[in-house]
Structure formats: C-alpha cells, structure tokens
Write a structure and sequence with these properties.
By secondary structure, the protein is α/β, with parallel strands linked by helices. It has 19 helices and 21 strands.
C-alpha cells in the first residue's frame, strides 16, 4: 500500500518532486513516509516535515484543514461566520502552513482571523475565546527538534478538540484526497481572511496580569525564549508586573526554527540550558526561566542556599505553584485544581489542606481543558489552576491551554517573595516536603523511532499487559490499573507497589517514545525500580 501512495505523490506533489525522487531507491525511507497517515495524538497532528502521508507538509496541512472546513460548514452558516483563529510559532514552515490553513478555510467561505507574526500557543486559546470563533488552529510542534512541526486543533471553548468532535473530524479528514482540495479565489481571500490587531495582544496580556499575586522587584532573572514565541509576552509580563533586573540569553532571543544552540528546545532537558546557565553565572542571577518555542512550557533553575544553580522538575515546580497560589490568592467559592494521573501525588494533599477540590485526568492538557469546561458548564466548581508534570502550568481561566507567560510571572513573584525573606525556592520546596511528606518523582523516556520503533512500543505495552511484573526493584506489585479497560480507555498502565510507590507507563501521543513515571519513597528506591526499563 505504501508503494502505491508513494507513486501517487510522485505524480501529484509537484512541490516535493525532487525530494521524492531522491528517496526512490530507499525502500525503508519510502515505507516510513507512507506506511500511515499522521494521526491525532494528545496534541493533534505532529510529525517530521517533508513529503509523504506520514509527514507534515502543505498537502497534509491542507487535508486536515479541509476536513475542519467541511465540519464547520456542516455546523451551519453561524459557525462559518464565527470563523477560525489561526496562530503559528517560530518553527520552519510555520508561517507557510498557517497561510495554507487560511486559504483552505477561505475557499469554503469561512472567516479566518490570523496573526501577522508568531504568537504563543496559549494566546491562540485565549484569542478563540476572546473573538468567539468556532475553532482555532495552532501551527507548532512545541518542544520537538527542528525537523518537526505540528497542527493543534481547538474548539470554541479554547480547548483542544474533545473526542466527541475530533473523532467525527478524523473520519471527514480520512475521506479527503489531499490532491483534490479547493483553493480560494482572490476575492475569497480578501473577503474572508482578516489580520488580528494589537488590541487582542493587549487583552491577552491584561488577562495574564490579572493573575499576578504580588509586585515584582529586583530579583535577578535570566530569561530565554529558546528562539520562540514566548519572547515578547513573557518579557512584557515581567516588565508590567514590576521586575526590573532581566538578563536575556541574547543568542536565543530572535526566532529561529533551526534552534542552533538548543537542538532539542525542551526545558525539561539539560542540553538546552547551557547558554542560559552561562548568562546567569555572568550576571549572578537568582533564577533562570526558559520557555519552549511555542511559549506554553516553563522550565526553572534557581540558586539553592549554597548559591548553586539547580533545575526543578515539572513536579517540583507544580507543587510549589500549587502551595503558593492556594496560600496567597483569594479563592472563589468551590475552588478546584486539575492535574494528571502521572503528575505529583502531593498536589491532592495540598489541595485538601486548603479545602480545594482536586481532579485527576489523563495525560495531556486537552484533558485538563475538558475538565475545566465540564465544571464550568455544570457550575459545580470554579477552576483556579491546572498543571502537568511535563512543565505545563495554567493559573486562571482565561485560556484552555498551559501558559508559560503566566507561569513565568508567578514563579518569579514566588521567588521574589522568598528572596525578600532571605530564602530560596529550594527552601520553599523543603518547607512543602516537611509539611506534606516528601516523594521522589522522576520521568524517564525511551525513544523508539520509525516503523520498528512504533512496533516495539506496542510490543512493550502488550507485554506489560499479558505478562506484568510481580515485583519491581524487589518490591511486590500490589495492584495494577490498566486504563485501557476504563470506561474512557487510555493506553496507560499503573503498577502500585507494596511500599506505596507507583510506576505509570504510557506511549507518548506526540513523540516516538514510551514514557515511565516513577513516584517513589526516595532516590534509592527509584534506582532499584529502574529495572523495569530493562
């Protein structure tokens, strides 16, 4: 089947003809590019850029957008009138792909509202809500390497499409021929494609600043946007919230989809911090903030009491934000926090201490957004904050995706408060552990690329189900929860151990990897439990 697809593309994809001809004698490469269509994961479409059905390119982008357009048309004239918000980040081809999306929608007589330049992912979510569009598209691959790009699809609440809609959309997309998609006339482009003005930028920043807890000060901050869309909004949020001592990692400020000094621009990974740490040491900074290319994830390094710069995990940052926000904000009636089944188990304890309702959801911020919508519609609880261990945090309900702008601001406000007290964020973390009990939490990824990698991941998950371990690290497995058997199934398995520790295993929805989440008594136990990776 993949050979026939290759021949079809060779005949029709004129923009990629040279690229396709260059692989005609590479059977493995042809198979990898055509053995499947890109699939919707926890964040829509995401894949390597290039020619092929299993790649992101103008044809796969047009096909996905035509499917969205047909779905909107089937929803009626009012939905077409409301239109679609489009944003894009600094990745290579993001501007082009966003333009293709706009053209396809215009060809269906659907209004399009598009920014003229890069904007962070959470601003896309905010803009959908602010302009009341029926849907939104964000062109980004978040923190993936430069070879990748992606296509996030949002619905009218500003959250990524729920299964009730995305399942129907996928069926429409699958029925579309990527080489038979109508494109707009000049008149349609002029009538239906609108540029979003700076007033929406201001409205977004005002919404972020409304979540500020205290004024900033002379905290010494080093900031890097990792060549991405966080640069302007994060710096402006710092400025307007009162921070006066900001040092930038100059070589990583301007947008650059090649990420020359950060090949894997993910603040979870140590490799992308080298330049930021050097800048912080040079300027004697108290804290370093790094945001990923689409400005939705926030990494933090801060000095400990000995003056050493140390990186926080997403779980550590999340539990500090939870304690800080709940102890400082005036909480609404029936407040709620939402996190994920693989994030820190301390969050529920902290929420309970402040009489705040805690909700667990599946991995992926789209699931947090769905829960926000649910409690909003039922008027049962009022959302205060949500977060996941993969350094994604949202404080406030102005958006339905994680937001590095608000997280960066409040993390620095938190650091300022403790600096004023002669303490560090590491001291604050120790206070939290002393209050609620310490848990050693660690995430480990096994990368498995290509067709063989995808099959290996499936085989590993199947093995955990058919021949689960009776013990891990010498500790008896007391209970196994297979979320594939849950009322709403998910490809996640949790092993609960006799000691109270837990290991969760799941394939990534956006990257070629299988992820292991450890929640242990201490580091020694973690070292023993790592045997499950072998």
């Amino acid at each position: 089947m993949y050979k026939e697809k290759y021949q079809k593309w060779l005949k029709n994809a004129t923009e990629y003809k040279a690229e396709l001809e260059s692989i005609q004698n590479d059977e493995k490469e042809i198979e990898d590019r055509f053995y499947q269509d890109l699939e919707f994961g926890t964040a829509g479409l995401r894949g390597k850029m290039g020619a092929g059905t299993n790649r992101l390119n103008i044809y796969t982008v047009r096909k996905a957008t035509a499917g969205l357009a047909e779905f909107i048309v089937s929803s009626g004239p009012a939905a077409m009138q409301r239109g679609v918000t489009i944003c894009f980040d600094s990745r290579n081809n993001s501007f082009t792909f966003a333009g293709e999306c706009a053209k396809v929608l215009a060809a269906y007589n659907i209004n399009v509202y598009i920014y003229e330049d890069l904007r962070p992912t959470p601003q896309c979510s905010f803009t959908i809500r602010h302009l009341s569009t029926i849907a939104g598209i964000m062109i980004t691959a978040s923190h993936n390497p430069k070879e990748y790009n992606g296509y996030k699809c949002y619905w009218e609440d500003g959250g990524q499409m729920p299964p009730s809609i995305s399942d129907r959309l996928i069926k429409i997309i699958d029925s579309i021929d990527e080489f038979n998609i109508k494109m707009p006339t000049k008149e349609q482009e002029e009538k239906y494609i609108h540029t979003i003005g700076v007033s929406v930028d201001k409205a977004y920043l005002d919404a972020v600043l409304a979540e500020s807890i205290r004024k900033g000060g002379h905290l010494k901050i080093t900031y890097t946007p990792l060549y991405g869309a966080g640069n302007i909004p994060v710096r402006e949020a710092f400025k307007q919230s009162g921070f006066t001592n900001i040092n930038l990692v100059e070589e990583q400020v301007q947008p650059n989809g090649n990420f020359p000094t950060a090949p894997y621009p993910n603040p979870e990974k140590d490799e992308c911090w080298k330049e930021a740490v050097e800048t912080a040491q040079k300027n004697n900074s108290d804290i370093i903030i790094a945001t990923d290319p689409d400005g939705d994830r926030t990494g933090v390094i801060a000095r400990d009491k000995n003056g050493q710069l140390k990186k926080f995990t997403g779980n550590q940052t999340g539990i500090m934000l939870t304690e800080y926000v709940l102890s400082h904000k005036t909480l609404p009636q029936n407040p709620a926090i939402i996190s994920t089944i693989v994030s820190s188990r301390l969050t529920k304890k902290i929420a309970s201490a402040y009489n705040v309702k805690y909700f667990d959801v599946y991995t992926g911020f789209k699931n947090i957004a769905e829960k926000i919508l649910e409690i909003e519609e039922t008027k049962s609880y009022k959302f205060v904050m949500g977060w996941e261990e993969s350094i994604g945090f949202l404080i406030g309900d102005y958006a339905r995706d994680k937001d590095a702008t608000v997280a960066s601001m409040i993390i620095c406000e938190m650091a300022q408060e403790f600096k004023d007290k002669g303490k560090t964020l590491w001291d604050f973390l120790d206070e939290i552990y002393a209050k609620y009990g310490e848990i050693y939490e660690k995430t480990f990824d096994l990368v498995k690329e290509g067709v063989e990698g995808a099959e290996e991941i499936k085989a590993m998950m199947a093995h955990f189900r058919t021949a689960p371990p009776s013990e891990i690290g010498g500790i008896k497995v007391e209970n196994i929860t297979d979320y594939a058997k849950a009322p709403i199934p998910a490809d996640v398995i949790s092993f609960q151990l006799e000691s109270g520790s837990e290991v969760c295993v799941r394939p990534s929805g956006t990257e070629p990897k299988i992820k292991f989440y450890f929640s242990c008594k201490d580091e020694t136990e973690f070292e023993a439990m790592k045997e499950i990776l072998e």
